[in-house]
DNA sequence: AACTCGGGGCA
DNA sequence: TGCCCAGAGTT
């Protein structure tokens, strides 16, 4: 290990100076984020789960809507999973929402509805690893627990001029020990947040603002002119291209939707029937779509038109989605929740169904189309209830 | 120690 | 299109 790292780990005065500098800076620079206005463990927990692999700006709106709907653990534990997922829709990594929901039930069952205060008990909840447990308990209760995540990996790597891949097991061990070593005895929660804030606002991936960094003087990467090289870049992901087809099956004013099963992507969410297909939307595409729906779901359809083509990414996949508009002809569809969980729903009902993002996008197209088609003469009796869809970005 | 989980935003 | 993001859980 480099000398500066040893200094940080060994010299208590140096560590105290570092902590003081960072905390003082944070006191004047901390952003006003919604989850910083509370010390309620449940609220902090929700924020930390949402923030996993997700940027702050994206989370803010979701956090506020989620807590408005589920203000405490018991409310969340008692909620329908569909409502939980509906509020998570668009945030991605939906397993987080299902695990949060399951953990809420566990908190009610095992801890009387009180969020646990011991590291081991928190760590035992689904979806909570070392980072999240340390974050919740340090921020909420000032327990002296270190954290290590995207921002602080970068900050600490630069601070000690870590030459190795910070993702390696060896480096992680080093970084966790540094995170623990520099953690002051008091204001641990503020300090942990300050470190993340520093990584997010000053010690950025590209062109870090060293001129305004409160700890530039003890930064080894800075001293060695290596801020551009540290942390070592991750090897770029290799994408796999996929082409899939989604079919909008119309029957009167209803549409056929299917719940994604465990083991599939978007498990628990709903989508228009979707399957892997050829790359082009030609004659054979129509035929194979018809055959696929018949053999897969037992539904006979008559293709109407190619509705749209959309591209989206899912982890390491790049998906081109061909969307086919079709009419239901025949075939029995069990309208229940048993797998494969098919349902006929109206456009209005879709507002409450948790859909994957592409499903929501298609729904938007259908609503648009319906509005355009509607002639002034065919006026239906006004609906008394208008359901408001959550805004999609 | 890798790999996967199957996401989404933004320049 | 490439890079990044307040990681967790498995193999």
TrEMBL record:
| Family matches, as Gene3D superfamilies | Helix-hairpin-Helix base-excision DNA repair enzymes (C-terminal), Hypothetical protein, domain 2, Nucleoside Triphosphate Pyrophosphohydrolase
Q: Which residues form the HhH-GPD domain?
A: 50-201
Biological processes annotated in GO? base-excision repair; mismatch repair
UniProt-listed PROSITE patterns: ENDONUCLEASE_III_2
Give the span(s) annotated as Disordered.
368-393
GO molecular function list: 4 iron, 4 sulfur cluster binding; 8-oxo-7,8-dihydroguanine DNA N-glycosylase activity; adenine/guanine mispair binding; metal ion binding; oxidized purine DNA binding; purine-specific mismatch base pair DNA N-glycosylase activity
Keyword terms, alphabetized: 4Fe-4S, DNA damage, DNA repair, Glycosidase, Hydrolase, Iron, Iron-sulfur, Metal-binding
Free-text remark on how the cofactor is bound: Binds 1 [4Fe-4S] cluster.
- Catalytic activities: Hydrolyzes free adenine bases from 7,8-dihydro-8-oxoguanine:adenine mismatched double-stranded DNA, leaving an apurinic site
Q: Which cofactor does it need?
A: [4Fe-4S] cluster
Record field: compositional bias (Basic residues): 380-393
Q: What is its EC number?
A: 3.2.2.31
Indicate the family of this protein. Belongs to the Nth/MutY family.
Checking NCBIfam families in the record gives: mutY
Physiological role: Adenine glycosylase active on G-A mispairs. MutY also corrects error-prone DNA synthesis past GO lesions which are due to the oxidatively damaged form of guanine: 7,8-dihydro-8-oxoguanine (8-oxo-dGTP).
> What is the protein name given in its UniProt record?
Adenine DNA glycosylase
Which species is this record about? Answer: Anatilimnocola aggregata
Q: Which gene encodes it?
A: mutY
